[in-house]
Amino acid sequence: MRRAIYPGSFDPITYGHLDIIKRASKLCDELVVGVLNNKQKNPLFSIDERVNMIRELTENLDNVKVDSFEGLTVDFAKAKDAQVIIRGLRAVTDFEIEIQIAQSNKVQYPDLETLFMPTSLKYSYLSSTVAKEFASYGGDISLFVPPQVIPLIEAKIKDKEK
Ligand code: ADP
User: Fold this and answer.
1) Is 15 annotated as contributing to ligand binding?
2) Which amino acids are annotated catalytic?
3) Mean pLDDT of 125-139
4) Ligand 1 interacting residues, C-beta cut-off 6 A
5) Phi and psi (nearest 5°) for 5?
6) Domains in the chain and their CATH numbers?
7) Which ligand 1 atom is nearest residue 128's CA?
8) Tens digit of pLDDT for each residue in 50-107?
9) Measured between alpha carbons, how far is 109 from 113 in angstroms, rounded to an integer?
């Protein structure tokens, strides 16, 4: 069984993430989306909210599973018995940090490979931060996140303003 993990914050999931999930799921027997429970990042959505959103949006992809994790990505990969870590690459700025993380992970766990997937051109500008920023100023985010996610972001932002 060739299993890959796709780790990230997904706060919240965007069309850019979904695109990587769909493409990466075709390259392995099972893809586990790992939602990082990193409280230092001060996420807008709770870990359960982020996991549930991704589960709902990937329901139709039979070999995609979603789970949360804390701590090191390599430990999550080991726990899932995965051989591959998938990361998306948008710009050169992603590359600089990603190559460093991939090489440190390789030192820690030589059997684990990191595969970088270039973003689709149409999502190369997109990040969860961009989606949240637009939403906070009442902007249209329908090109950034799936329809189910829009009211959830709007509700969170309203809550924060109270
Ligand atoms: P992290 O905080 O770990 O970077 P993110 O949720 O921001 O988590 O991203 C998770 C993964 O998805 C990363 O590999 C990131 O490069 C990738 N990613 C984010 N946005 C896009 C996008 N628009 N296109 C392709 N990959 C993306």
Assistant:
1) no
2) 17, 41, 90, 128
3) 96
4) 8-10, 14, 16-17, 20, 87-88, 90, 94, 119, 123, 126-128
5) -115, 150
6) 3-123 (3.40.50.620)
7) 7
8) 999 999 999 999 999 999 999 999 999 999 999 999 999 998 889 999 999 999 999 9
9) 9
